[in-house]
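Service request form, structural biology core

Requester: graduate student, group of Dr. S.
Request type: structure prediction, single chain
Budget code: on file
Notes: please return the result as structure tokens.

Sequence provided:
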Amino acid sequence: MKLTAFVVAVLTLVVSTAFPPLALPWILLLVLAYAAYGVLRSASGKLDYLNDLPNAVRVALAAVGGYLIGAPLNFILPSSGIFFVVLSLYLNDEYQRRALSSLTEGKRGGSVALLGIDGSGKSTHAAFLEKWFLSRGYDCTVVPFHRYLFVERLTRKGGERAPAEGERGGNPLRPLLSLADNILLNLITSLGVGLEGRVVIYDRYIWSTYVKYRSLGYPVEPLSTLYMLPRPNLAFVLDVPVTRSMEIIRGRGSHIRYASEVLTEEKEEYLRIAASRGYPVIDSTRSFETVQEELEGRLESVFPTVRRGRRS
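Core staff response, request fulfilled:
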């Protein structure tokens, strides 16, 4: 399909340059011809829009791009033409099919973040929510935001270690590296989820990195605006007392044992974020089933069950 799009762009450039009045009819003819080709190629004799429409879109983009490249006006139109041609070459057919499928099936994709201090049940509830979304016909993925793409490897090479209990502060470059890492991870995992009807559950979020660094005394305040800029579609703060958090942490052999002051600062910051942005605060000291039911109840109206008779 990339070769087809490239040939269409070149032919349109030639036609629009040699015969300007024929440029727009040529573009329309190409798109209609390719759609007709899809109909003839179909075994059922009907247009399979999930397969043929995405290819027709790529042909249209290539044709428009070829026309704009030859436009004798200013820099904007030719540069826009190059953009359309590149888009036609790399706009994945499968991505378009998933987007069309999500529209016909009634899917509403998006991102959900679970926040809270250590021991509040974020990871466990995220795993159960993933199963819940899958049962409703959604493609769903859990992204653990406390795992980095490259920061851990860089800091290990630099000899940095995790802070000991009661220790505060650290390498002033780490918050900046973590910000770049987190933004990249967020882009990779969330781009296009709404159109494709997919759901991403974030076990912690970019804000969690900021909250942790702030409570540990890192010089992160100048970066606060950038850390707090990205937003998921929905977020929930799972709230537990600091004493309970510390009890759970002590039961985890390899977990970093943060001081109560650190956890208290984190808890207060999460509650402040929830209040300022209108996110629900859920009492996570209740039974697991009760908390899970509340999460599912708040999500089911936003993410309706996929219509029957359709596959996710």
